[in-house]
Each structure stands twice: as structure tokens, then as C-alpha cells.
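Can you make up a protein sequence with its C-alpha cells?

===
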Amino acid sequence: MNVDLHPERSILHAQVRKAKASHCVDDAGSFLRPSTFKGPSSKVYLGDVAETLLRCSTGAETPTFSHPPGFDEQRWIMEYTAGSLHVSIQSVPYWGFGLLTSGYRNEVEIRGPV
């Protein structure tokens, strides 16, 4: 079993419980913008996990999407730097416990000093 253990890398898997289209991705630079952004953009469902991380990251640069949402607004990868930390959040949809229900989770990778 090969496990990637790195002293300056943490990974968190989190179930997204609530999401709404309160943000969008601008088409020009793939930056995260509020839903009131007036330029050409596409909506994105961040969810409670990503929104909480952004609120707690003081001094964070504007997040960018290395893989912006497409047809499925819940599948994306967003990255930003806050001080000496680099944060990457990947949103992954999956089928839930029923045939007709689905949900999504966020995989959060934080690199930097503990």
C-alpha cells in the first residue's frame, strides 16, 4: 500500500449539505464572482463547505477555477492562496442512498505549514 504522506499537505473529504447558486465564474478569467456579476459568466454551486472555507481564509486572493463548471454546475475544481497556504477544492457529484437521490462532496487539499 503506497500512501502519500506529506507533512505540509492535508486532505479533507466533506459532504456538502446545502448549496445555492450564489456565485458564478466569469468567462474571461475563470475567477469566482458573486451572482450579481454583470459580465459574461456561468453559475456555480459552491455549497456550504466551500463557502465556509472562503469565509475563514483571511487575506485570500480571488479564487480561480482550474476546471470550471460545465453542464453540471456541481463538478469543478477551484484554487486559491491565503498567506502561505494553497487551497484546492474539488467538487464531485455522486449517487446517494436512493435510486433517485444524488449529492456531492468536496475534496479539500491544503498545502503549507501546519
